[in-house]
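Repro:
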Amino acid sequence: MAEITIIPARNRYDEVVRTAAYARVSSSSEDQLNSFAAQIRYYTELLQNSTDAVFVDMYADEGISGTSAAKRTEFQRLMSDCRKGKIDRVLAKSISRFARNTKDSLEAIRELKTLGISVYFEKENIDTGEISSEMMLAMYSQFSQEESMAISKNCRLGVKKRMMDGTYKTASTPFGYDYVNGKLQINPQKAEIVKQIFSWYVSGIGMNEIAVRLNSLGVRKEVWRHGTIRCILTNERYIGDSLLQKRFTTDTLPFRTVRNRGEKEQYYVSGTHEPIIEKAIFENAQRILARKDTPTGMAKEQSPFRKKIVCANCGCTFRRKERKGCVRWVCRNHNDLAANCGIRQIRETEFQAAFIRLWNKLQAHGKHTVRLLHGERKIRAERSRSRGSTKNLRGLHRRKIAENHSRRNADTI
């Protein structure tokens, strides 16, 4: 009978192991920052003084939520170094510090286990290198996720309550204002630019032209664009009012901020701060915008030329513009900035006339034209196949030569 020798398993932690630590806090509050500093100090001292571990690095995300791994740059750096084979073991204070999204947590841990890397969660006393089942790990991860969702829900309820009772403080500062002591205060220099934008627009100057003028004046470092001007023209903040909850955070993970298109309640609060623009001027600008947008938007859907006209100069598609009852089509590059493309606007009637001419020609010579086009496509296809496979072409030539040679020999016999 064969002799069997049992070779005992080797505990990898009996050797010197390359170890890293990960820490995270979700906000920049004083308590959280103290916890953050304590985590970093604790793990740095622990690993530097260890005799059975080589300290690789400390990975720490400050003021970032754990509900999405994609936004945590240090966590992504940790995973990248693990994939490069620089780390054998990862330490974390708890599963909730590692991730608050069950899916992200389990995916990361599974990938690390595949790479032969274990993760030790100190609070739960779980070492992924020693457990064979993910059940407990999944349960703790789910608890962390539910805790995060409960916190998020409570925060949203608090924000909603402040909106309803008028105590909500703005989260953003529009151009033309400064945020001072929790209130919007007019910035005199920027406010003059806002007034000039409204003055130009109500006098008949388009948003693209306004953007070009402001860029030429060098008003600010950022480039002025059509969308920037539109945001200013439609922002009720400039008349001293505030429309709250223009955007909202989704209820499911990963949390996303999306535009409110009627899914959630909105709150319009009058007189929240000092206005820059008179209400009559603002309402006039809204009427002009509505008059330009409504027919143009309908025409885009109904026009047979939509996405069919391509600029011969730059290759960009044309867009439809209507002003004072006259419809024109313009290259989008030229429309954004005239220097981008030299092709000027073309009346829609010219495109209609060109289409009618082409239609009449096809009616008179359609069959011949189609035959020529079909033949041209076949020639192009043959050329494409020939270029793509030179060996096949040479083989074809050799077969033709062999066939001709065989016929000549047969004729001779």
